[in-house]
Here is the input.
Amino acid sequence: MGAIRILDYLDERAVLFLTAKNRTEVLNAAVEKAAELSYIEDVGSFRDAVVARDKVLSTGIGFGVAVPHAKRPGISGFFVIPVILQDPVDWDAIDREPVQIAFLIGGPDDQQQQYLQILAKIVLVTKNPELRKRLIAATSASDVVALFQDV
Here is the structure.
């Protein structure tokens, strides 16, 4: 397999623009979107896995970005749900900064290497301040997806 492209795991229908009070609301909305798009079948167990993972170590990676994630049996392929927040929310991030961009990653529990590659690519790409600024300024799902065209 060649280099991981985030674009390969994105779908315009999965992009969320939210106004949320806290990370629980963000996680719930993103998990519901994953279910709506049939990426996951068992909403409860996936949500529990995402929340449990976030409790072990915050998925707020810094720079106003969070990457909540989980792998579960029964998920057929990887997916990424970008969430652009109207107002930043506290995520207990490693740099203590609130989060304005989140990427929910989900996938099968038996493909650890691909999972880590997707996670690492999102972390790498979102360290780019210009990309973060353009994500926050995006007004449509197609704008968000287009930003990943060349990364």
Notes: Residues 112-126 form the longest helix (15 residues). The chain has one domain: 9-144. Strands lie at 16-18, 60-62, 65-66, 69-72, 79-89, 99-108. The chain has a mean pLDDT of 95.
